[in-house]
């Protein structure tokens, strides 16, 4: 009889152990729906939705990533680390012992509802990563780092052990949707000696609904209305030593709504180049030239997949660089004080003897007068050489 009682007691003990383990390693989420690896917000935008992973970060799995599929109404998506039993009606980072990188404002929230400026804002198509440096923790201090599109944004030291940090995602507006990767790897390609492709994202001053992959620009917006425009604007303006650029259409999409041109630094992000004041652009879909107006003028042929479009500035020989041009403080050496500069376009004596019509004929393009310079826009029949200008 005692043996039977002992057996039942042993079975009850095993059952309780299984129940405790099941609760311990169960993911928790509120006002969210999970479909495979996709998390989507299911609240009414007045309430926070939060997801907490079933297991904390560890030596074998010290990093995770979230890819923004849709920013929804406000893009209030947070990615970070929280305690296991974090309150699911609060964004990660708002409560003590939690921290998170918020996509809508680029701020870091570290146990407080008031964030600190930390990194760039994140949009549709961006990947936000979060991990811990296992070799950099001692005396209850852990170094947490965040990434955007595979590049480290910054680090922060928090008073916690790695075993207490659970991956978490927060959302707070209709339409928000992300893809979760709890098995993501960080820095493996570099350690294994594999080829790493430069994203070239640093070359762009502004990216709106455009994703950069190497030298490829991809529109990731909705494309449902006239304001769903993607914009990629270079960090530096054209100048006398870099006065031409071009692109190749690798995929024309549904209607080839691709525009190439020049725009002022603060150009609206939801307007095609050429549509608003302070811009000029050649539009591939209709071959028209738009100069600060929503109405274009017939200019050149339409462009299709495989075509190469180019744009440059033909500076006058006596062009004087204006020291008042906008430029980044870190690039002040590119913008010296007012002085005469030599235009490389005219450095060859033979080129100086050619008149404008001959030069224009060689480039198979057209030029448009803008103030004291010429904007040169070309559409070669086959791939042009950038060195030609």
TrEMBL record:
Protein's recorded name: SPRY domain containing 3
Region Disordered, annotated ranges: 325-366
Gene label: SPRYD3
InterPro entries tied to this protein: B30.2/SPRY, B30.2/SPRY_sf, ConA-like_dom_sf, SPRY_dom, SPRYD3_SPRY, Ubq-SigPath_Reg
B30.2/SPRY domain boundaries: 1-187
Biased composition range(s): Acidic residues: 347-362
Organism: Salmo trutta
Upper taxonomic lineage: Eukaryota, Metazoa, Chordata, Craniata, Vertebrata
Classification via PROSITE patterns: B302_SPRY
């Amino acid at each position: 009889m005692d043996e039977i009682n002992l057996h039942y007691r042993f079975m009850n003990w095993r059952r309780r152990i299984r129940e405790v383990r099941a609760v311990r390693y169960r993911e928790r989420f509120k006002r969210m729906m999970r479909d495979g690896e996709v998390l989507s917000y299911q609240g009414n935008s007045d309430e926070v939705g939060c997801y907490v992973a079933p297991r904390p970060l560890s030596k074998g799995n010290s990093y995770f990533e979230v890819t923004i599929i849709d920013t929804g109404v406000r893009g209030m998506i947070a990615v970070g680390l929280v305690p296991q039993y974090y309150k699911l009606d609060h964004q990660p980072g708002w409560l003590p012992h939690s921290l998170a990188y918020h996509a809508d404002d680029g701020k870091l929230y570290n146990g407080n509802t008031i964030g600190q400026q930390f990194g760039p804002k994140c949009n549709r198509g961006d990947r936000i990563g979060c991990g811990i440096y296992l070799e950099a923790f001692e005396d209850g201090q852990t170094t947490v780092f965040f990434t955007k599109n595979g590049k480290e944004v910054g680090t922060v030291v928090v008073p916690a052990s790695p075993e207490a940090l659970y991956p978490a995602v927060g959302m707070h507006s209709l339409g928000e949707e992300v893809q979760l990767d709890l098995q993501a790897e960080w820095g493996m390609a570099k350690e294994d000696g594999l080829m790493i492709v430069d994203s070239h994202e640093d070359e762009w001053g502004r990216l709106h609904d455009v994703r950069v992959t190497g030298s490829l620009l991809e529109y990731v917006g909705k494309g449902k209305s006239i304001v769903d425009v993607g914009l990629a604007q270079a960090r530096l303006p054209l100048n006398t030593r870099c006065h031409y650029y071009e692109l190749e259409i690798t995929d024309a999409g549904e209607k080839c709504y691709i525009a190439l041109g020049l725009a002022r630094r603060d150009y609206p992000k939801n307007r095609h180049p050429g549509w608003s004041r302070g811009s000029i652009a050649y539009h591939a879909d209709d071959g028209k030239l738009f100069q600060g107006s929503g109405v274009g003028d017939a200019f050149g042929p339409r462009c299709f997949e495989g075509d190469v479009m180019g744009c440059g500035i033909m500076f006058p020989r006596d062009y004087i660089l204006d020291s008042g041009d906008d430029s980044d403080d870190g690039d002040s050496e590119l913008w010296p004080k007012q002085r005469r500069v030599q235009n490389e376009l005219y450095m060859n004596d033979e080129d100086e003897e050619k008149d404008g019509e001959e030069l224009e004929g060689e480039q198979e393009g057209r030029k448009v007068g803008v103030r004291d310079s010429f904007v040169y826009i070309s559409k070669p029949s086959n791939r042009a050489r950038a060195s030609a200008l």
